[in-house]
């Protein structure tokens, strides 16, 4: 009987551990999809789609620009979209980290490159970022951004 209870206990622990591990994997996949969709809109200069990824109370902390609010952030991106050259963003492979925030959403950390051609020369910069995603009943939006290492 003790052996049977021990085996049952072992399987319960394994199952519980597996269930807890699947949540971070699913969350990582969800945030990776959102990251891809958001920056697809960015790279296509699709402002109506792009701005839907942010909460109206967005706070964007930029190491070389200070604290920016939603309206300023959207205006700044519109100015980027209006430039003569195309600025393209790519996530650096293998740098995406996702960490759950209990009863709120997720932390999204990584490195990305932005590139454009200027005066016939390819210019590329690599930067670090941290985003806080808010999950409002299945609707994911970014509420905070920390953009640094510029």
Automatic annotation (TrEMBL):
Coiled coil: none annotated. Residues 31-142 form the DUF4440 domain. It comes from the Bacteria. This is Nuclear transport factor 2 family protein. It comes from Aquirufa beregesia.
């Amino acid at each position: 009987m003790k052996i049977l209870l021990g085996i049952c206990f072992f399987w319960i622990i394994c199952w519980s551990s597996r269930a807890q591990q699947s949540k971070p994997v699913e969350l990582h996949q969800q945030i990776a999809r959102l990251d891809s969709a958001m920056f697809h809109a960015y790279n296509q200069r699709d402002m109506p789609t792009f701005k839907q990824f942010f909460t109206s109370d967005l706070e964007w902390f930029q190491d070389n620009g200070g604290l920016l609010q939603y309206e300023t952030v959207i205006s700044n991106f519109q100015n980027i979209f209006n430039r003569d050259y195309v600025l393209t963003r790519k996530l650096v492979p293998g740098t995406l980290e996702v960490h759950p925030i209990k009863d709120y959403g997720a932390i999204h950390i990584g490195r990305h490159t932005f590139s454009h051609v200027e005066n016939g020369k390819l210019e590329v910069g690599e930067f670090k970022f941290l985003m806080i995603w808010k999950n409002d009943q299945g609707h994911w939006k970014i509420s905070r951004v920390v953009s640094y290492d510029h």
